């Protein structure tokens, strides 16, 4: 297959972040992340996607506040290249119905997520959390699952509680790439993928390896496992910009996944880079 054919595919970046940086609001940025302790705004990303041939993006929450959800929705209203938003709402509290009502007119709010990776391993099984998630489908919202690989068993049980809810797994469940460990991540991921109401993002991988010493070859077993588990029609491309820039530049990640997807059929590449995100997030792109 010619390079020009591989590179002609339409691309949606299904995972990136914006923020006005403050230490108080983004305390999760530890000392290894000094390089991204600054503002990242739509004009910054517009330059990146233009250079990489990406036509649209989905903006994802990076802190758990309604204020940020409002900011992301405002950005999406101002910039056509932002096709959807994954925000945050208070799933654990009685304030959830009011928040869902507030955002009901935000047509680009497509999903919500909670930063479960920072919670105890059994957090996904909490009754109050599941009561909140149970309200999402009726409001047309997807739920993004952000976990570490050790939380996969709970995630399987969680997804089984919500058979009518659509889910997106972020960052392939953050396996221990830096330690070159495939198990038990591989076994648990294959089991999770048996649930047809969840799709998976090819994102957030380089920052699970050593920022300086990772190689594309090191990522290959994880990419192959995800492809085996979900198939190209249940995978979506994402960069995790600007977090990814700690380990690789935007265009480099686009190139790596293009090379990984090169052996796939045109239809499969279209799904991975565009259509899975379009369908999963109801972006309604022609």
Highlighted features:
single chain, globular, about 290 residues, about 15% strand, alpha/beta
What portion of residues belong to β-strands?
A: 5-15%
Shape: globular
Average pLDDT taken over every residue: 96
Helix and strand composition category: alpha/beta
Order of SSEs, N→C? HEHEHEHEHEHEHEHEHH
Supply the number of helical segments: 10
The overall strand count is 8
Biggest beta-sheet profile: 8 strands, parallel
The oligomerization state is single chain
Q: Which strand order does the major sheet show? A: 1-2-3-4-5-6-7-8
Rounded to the nearest angstrom, the radius of gyration is: 18 Å
Kindly report how far apart the N and C termini lie: 26 Å
**Poorly predicted ranges (pLDDT <50, ≥5 residues)?**
1-6
Which range best describes the helical content: under 10%, 10-25%, 25-40%, 40-55%, 55-70% or over 70%? 25-40%
In terms of topology, how is this protein built?
Elements: H1 3-6, E1 12-16, H2 42-52, E2 56-60, H3 66-78, E3 82-87, H4 96-102, E4 109-114, H5 127-133, E5 142-145, H6 152-160, E6 167-169, H7 185-192, E7 198-202, H8 216-230, E8 235-237, H9 250-261, H10 266-280
Parallel strand pairs: 1-2, 2-3, 3-4, 4-5, 5-6, 6-7, 7-8
Helix pairs in contact: 6-7, 7-8
């Amino acid at each position: 297959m010619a390079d020009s054919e591989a590179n002609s595919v339409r691309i949606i970046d299904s995972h990136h972040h914006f923020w006005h940086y403050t230490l108080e609001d983004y305390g999760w940025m530890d000392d290894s992340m000094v390089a991204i302790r600054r503002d990242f705004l739509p004009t910054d990303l517009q330059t990146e996607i233009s250079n990489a041939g990406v036509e649209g993006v989905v903006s994802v929450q990076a802190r758990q506040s309604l204020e940020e959800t409002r900011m992301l929705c405002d950005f999406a209203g101002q910039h056509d290249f932002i096709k959807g938003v994954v925000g945050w709402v208070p799933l654990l509290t009685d304030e959830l119905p009011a928040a869902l009502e507030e955002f009901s007119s935000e047509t680009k709010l497509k999903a919500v997520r909670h930063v479960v990776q920072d919670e105890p391993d059994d957090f996904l099984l909490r009754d109050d959390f599941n009561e909140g998630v149970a309200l999402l489908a009726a409001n047309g919202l997807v739920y993004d699952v952000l976990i570490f690989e050790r939380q996969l068993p709970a995630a399987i049980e969680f997804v089984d509680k919500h058979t009518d809810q659509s889910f997106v797994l972020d960052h392939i469940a953050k396996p221990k790439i830096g330690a070159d460990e495939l198990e038990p991540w591989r076994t648990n991921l294959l089991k999770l993928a048996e649930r047809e109401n969840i799709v998976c993002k090819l994102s957030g991988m380089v920052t699970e390896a050593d920022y300086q010493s990772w190689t594309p070859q090191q990522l290959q077993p994880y990419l192959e496992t995800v492809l085996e588990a979900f198939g190209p029609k249940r995978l979506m491309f994402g960069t995790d910009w600007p977090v990814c820039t700690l380990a690789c530049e935007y265009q480099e990640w686009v190139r790596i996944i293009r090379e990984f997807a090169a052996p796939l059929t045109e239809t499969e590449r279209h799904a991975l880079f565009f259509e899975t995100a379009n369908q999963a997030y109801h972006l309604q792109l022609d």
